[in-house]
Amino acid sequence: MRKVVITVRTDILSTLVPPNFFEVVEYIETKAILRINITQGVKIAVCDFKIKEKFTFGDVNLPEEWKILDILEEIDHVYTCLLKTQYTKDSAKAINFFEEKEYANLRKFFESDIIFDLPFILSEGKVVMTFAAENEAIRGLLKRINLIGNIENISFQPATFSEQNLLSCLTERQKEVIAAAKKSGYYDVPRKITTEELSKNLGISTATTLEHLRKAEQRIISSILAGY
């Protein structure tokens, strides 16, 4: 597994924020991702808003899909905020973005094979995105990212995960499936739930459940035995 940092030149942000947004905001940098659900279009994160001189955070005209849950601190025009964003199929600004078949496939790909990581920075006309994935998934990512914009720069780094949080090597969907399996007694001896029953509880096919479990187990074991 490797980490890839991608800089993309894109106009997509102009469809998601008010016209004067970047007249006030220099950049937004995600500092910690607390929750992300691609299917539901939800993200909760700690973000730094760099506000340009002569403005304050009160001058920022946020998209209606963004909600500031709390302002944690302000230092030199950098406001550290707890931010929730939610784009759904009913969101007026997101309809064109989410209903296109290509973007639907992109969301599905992110959900199953890609781990969101940092840095993640938004500025006018440019996005810096970071992901962790296996080599095959990275190749697929680089092909699909052209749907968003033109790739300006790519850098690769080793993917590292702390022993204190082994689940950080999993996608959100993999975490959900393996946690449900554990809570349902799938890993108990004797097993308390079959794969078919677990799949029914999750609302997905048996084949998909087995695929998520296999990938999750493989990533956890690889992280534990890294170097062996």
Mean pLDDT: 84
What's the overall geometry? elongated
How much of the sequence lies in strands comes to 25-35%
Tally of separate helices = 7
Helix fraction bin: 25-40%
Number of domains: 2
Give the termini separation: 15 Å
Largest sheet: 8 strands, antiparallel
Low-confidence runs of at least 5 consecutive residues: none
Structural class: alpha+beta
Order of helices and strands: EHEEEEHHEEHEHHH
* Rounded radius of gyration (Å): 19 Å
Going across the biggest sheet, name each strand in turn: 4-5-3-2-6-7-1-8
Number of strands: 8
Secondary structure layout:
Elements: E1 2-9, H1 21-24, E2 25-37, E3 42-51, E4 66-75, E5 78-86, H2 95-99, H3 101-113, E6 115-123, E7 126-133, H4 135-144, E8 150-158, H5 172-183, H6 195-202, H7 206-224
Antiparallel strand pairs: 1-7, 1-8, 2-3, 2-6, 3-5, 4-5, 6-7
Helix pairs in contact: 5-7, 6-7
